[in-house]
Amino acid sequence: MEYEKKYDIILFHEKEKGKNFLSEVEGKNPLFICTIGNTQVAKIPGISAAGKFPEITDYTPPADVELLLLGSCKCIQGVPVTPEGIPTPALITMSALRLANIPAIVVNGGTRIKPHVPFIDVGGEPGEDIRTGKAVKNVEEVLERAKIAGENFSRIADYLVIGESIPGGTTTALSVMLAMGIDARGKVSSSMPDNPHDLKTRIAEESLRISGIKAGSLTNDPIKAVSLVGDPMMPAFAGLVLGAASRVPVLIAGGTQMGAILAIIKALNPGVLKNIAIGTTRWIISDAKSDLRGIVSQIADIPILAADLDFSSSRFEGLRTYERGFVKEGVGAGGAAIAAMMKSKGSISRETLLGEIERNYERLVQLR
């Protein structure tokens, strides 16, 4: 794998463009935005590991952003964990943002539980089960409001880093990508080592069938695709990017869900793609059970950058478990780590990050 100079950042795809993106943001001051939402898809048994029980996934996004802004959670006790007790990737994001003194803003795309922190509301509602054919309401309105927010954020920061928290999001992303003609079957990632591809594909294909659409029939109609089979994070996230990327660089921070975001952006304004890169983690790009590059290469020639995080030497089993294929990414963890490294011009390394993550993990475990 090729690395960028003194940084613990892997140039995974479109390497020259990746180098150019990093040189453009080196030493600059980013703004981190986390877009949150809920979808009933997360409550389908076996889909998500973002909570001990499917019904409590409603609390995961608000708890994630409370952790980012407050350093602890208010809507739940402790921190969001998988059924195996593995902490949310928001722990990584919080640690990176605090180390590099990067400000964070929350945009609510549509959650059932409101976080106990300030947030920008773009008028979205929680998503329904995509097998109803009525997944997301007022998609166009939410997207337009988010565009206004993105444009204004671009006036107060050198560049934006945008992440997300929505349990069940890889299944809705798969559905939207299929509707828009991107073959993502067997390519989306999972927060679990045993990626339930068959279940996700079955649900996605059923949702298209119920909506009366064929794969690829909505290539140029992302609003309809999201309305029928998407989730409420998508229009908020895509709108932010569309509003900002004509003015400043935007690092879209996430895993295979970013394929759906890219497809939406390409259909609405392909001109801004030249100002976009994906920021993710090593765990995503080394995952043999998903294929981020295979998804992105079908959509646009944009770079994929990965923070080379390594928890194998951690003092804590909950963190070492990341090395066994659990969680991998979320809440903009990879993008936040990359932004911290770039703002500090390399003084924040993966070792520095691990030390901060361990300190925060120890403190949070004691609070439980």
How is this structure best summarized?
The chain has 368 residues and is an alpha/beta fold. It is built from 14 helices and nine strands. Helix 3 packs parallel to helix 13, helix 4 (139-153) runs parallel beside helix 8 and helix 8 packs across helix 9.
Describe this protein's structure.
It is a single chain. By secondary structure, this protein is α/β, with parallel strands linked by helices. It has one domain (2-367): Nicotinate-nucleotide-dimethylbenzimidazole phosphoribosyltransferase (CobT), large domain (Rossmann fold), CATH 3.40.50.10210. It is 40% helix and 12% strand. It has helices at 15-25, 60-70, 90-100, 139-153, 169-179, 197-211, 222-229, 233-244, 258-268, 282-285, 292-296, 317-320, 333-343, 350-367, and strands at 2-3, 9-13, 30-37, 104-110, 120-121, 159-165, 250-253, 276-281, 304-307. A nine-stranded mixed sheet has the order 1-2-9-8-7-6-3-4-5, sandwiched between helices. Helix 9 links the parallel strand 7 and strand 8 (276-281). Helix 3 (90-100) runs parallel beside helix 13, helix 4 (139-153) packs parallel to helix 8 (233-244) and helix 5 packs parallel to helix 9. The radius of gyration is 18 Å and the shape is globular. The mean pLDDT is 95. Belongs to the UPF0284 family. InterPro entries: Nict_dMeBzImd_PRibTrfase, Nict_dMeBzImd_PRibTrfase_arc, Nict_dMeBzImd_PRibTrfase_sf.
